[in-house]
Structures are given as structure tokens and as C-alpha cells.
Amino acid sequence: MNPILERQGAYPLLRLDERREELKNKGARLFDFGAGDPREPTDIKIREALENSVPEVSQYPTATGKRELREAFAGWMRRRHEVSLDPATEIMPAGGSKEAIFHAPLAFLHHTHERRGVAYGTPGYPVYERGTIFAGGEPTPVKLTREGGFLLPLEKIDPEKTRILWLNYPHNPTGARATLSYLEEVAQFCREHDILLFSDECYNEIYEGVPPPSILEVTKERTLAFCSLSKRSGMTGYRSAMMAGDAELISALKKLRPSIGAATPSFIQNAAVAAWEDDGHVRERNRVFSEKRALFEAFFERANLDFGRTGASFYLWVAVPDGDDEKYALRLMDEGIVVAPGSAFGKGGEGFVRVALVPSVEECREAVSRWGKLFL
Ligand SMILES: Cc1ncc(COP(=O)(O)O)c(C=O)c1O
What we know:
Oligomer: single chain
Helix content: 25-40%
Order of helices and strands: HHEHHEHEHEEHEEHEHHHEHEEEH
CATH superfamily of the largest domain: Type I PLP-dependent aspartate aminotransferase-like (Major domain)
Bound molecules: pyridoxal-5'-phosphate
Number of helices: 13
């Protein structure tokens, strides 16, 4: 076996899944705020686009995808971020952003490179680390703090060693946002030190109030944005995302990705075109997330629980009163409320739990009342 696999524990949220399954099998009623996989229906236009494009003859899709898809994404980028992209050279599709994030370092790192550090925040999405290790890179997690607004602190990054820097705002698991001026600072730092800047923008469309900026509003130079339909359009099961930015980096991905076999099936591409071309369904999804967010925020205030009010992503990041996040999560689980212990997102997550606004508004109401009985 690859020794990396032997060293690796279970995928953090997998352990939580196992415990949840156990309880489910015992017939317990569960309110699952664990995994970030909402249950709101996928918009009918998107489902119809898929159904209407299942072909009689099935053939391999290309790794670069259909021009129509790249154009639909470019149209969205223009509407949403006022960034213009060349669909031929600056955009590439992926089978969800998870595989894109995991595979990207393979195009830019090699164990013979002297500078192969990859910087990312902890707590954070675990795939930045996994992708780094398998590509022969050196993972360099950087602690994100509440005082620092959970922004990656540039003064903690060693430019001599760092080849790639990952950003992820709005942030999983804390919901933290980055301002345009922070993104400018990071881009400037990366330009000065010739670091590749990868921005995971999975939650860019899940917000209330001020729209979160994209790194591409600042620069395309040695930069890639990873944009997903999973959360924006309720398409986690479709596996569809886009990478965009520096034409030279995209051209490296064009060399790498045909070997991976992660090309997006043509009927999924058609559904993705329908999704990127429409913003109405995203507004409706955000209305529902706002309703759930407001319910929990009001409860946390009543319960005197310490949490970040960011209005972005569909996560709430709550400080655990006695600091033991696993114990707190297990206690909630016994009441049927499943949350993710912060330590599942790396060392920097200890002492917090993450609430993903996944169950229905009604279920959120009931969960809040159960949680309240326990701790108020
Ligand atoms: C921060 C972050 N990035 C990327 C992903 C992957 O999303 P997908 O592969 O569905 O596009 C997730 C999924 O939860 C995430 O939380």
C-alpha cells in the first residue's frame, strides 16, 4: 500500500457518518447538521436540462468540456464578478471542485522541486492537505484565529518554501469572509514571491448582504479560482465545477487532466449550462439559508453561545463552552442533533462545532428547541 494511505486516518467526517449510521439503525430521529449537503430540491430547469440530454449514443466527454459550458460560466463570471474570461484558454470544467482541488497540485509540484510547500488554513477543508501530500508537496497548515477573522495570516507564510497558497472565502468551516482589500494583499504577496494563488470559491454564492468577491476581480496572474455548482445550485450529486484564471496554468491542467478520467459527462455539462445561466434559483436558495441562519443566530444569542455572524456560507461556527468539541458533539448527538466537531477540520478547529444549515426550516426549529432544553 502507498504509505501515505497507511498514515492517513479515516476521512474526518467519515467517523461522524459511522456514529450517525449507528443511531439511525437504532431508529433514532436525527437532525443532521453534520455534512454540508443541503436537501433543497435542485431547480426544475436544471433537472430538465439533464433529462433532455441523455444521448442515444454515449461517447467519451473531453477534459476541456463543451464550449457552450465554458461560455455559460464566462457569462456568470461577467454578471457576478465583472470579470471577463476567454472560454478557450482561461476556463476548464471539473467533476466537482473536490477532485479539482485534489488533483491541481499534480500539475504544478514535483518531488524534485526545491520549493514545494503548500500553505492553507487550519481549520479548513481537508482536501488541500491530501492533494498536497499525494503530489509530493509539503503541507504547511497555518492556524486561523478568531482574532484574525479566520483570515490566512501572510506573516506566518514562509515565501522561501511556499509554492502554492490556498484561500477559501467564504470559509468552510467558520463562514468567515474576505474583503477585496484582503484579497489584494494576498495577491500582492503571491506576486512578490512567485507563489501560485489558488482560491476555493465553493461558497461564493451562499451569502446575504454584500456579495463575496472572487480572487479573479483582483488578478488572473498565476492565479486560479475553483467555482462549484454543488452549493450554489444544489447539485452536489451532479459533480460539476469550473476552474478559471491564468491561461498558462489552465494549459498545464489541459495537459494533466485527460489522464485522470474526471471529464464531466455531456448530460451533466448540459445541466451545468442551465445552472450557470440562471441566478433566480440561487436567490431562492439563499432566502431559505437566511431563514435557517436567522433561527440559529437568535437561539445562540439567547443561549449565550459564542459564534461568528458572517452571513456567508451555510455554516455556523460555535465556540463550545468547556472547549471539548468532541464531547459536546456527542452530547448533542444523543439528543438527535448531529453537528461536526471542529477538530475534524484540523488542529485549528478544536473547541468549536460546525452547524451546517442542511435540514428543513421546520427541522431547524425543532432542533433549536431540543438544543435549548439541554443547555438553557
Ligand atoms: C471548502 C470546500 N471546497 C470544496 C468542496 C467540494 O465541493 P464539490 O466537490 O462538491 O464541488 C467543499 C465541499 O464541501 C468545500 O467545503
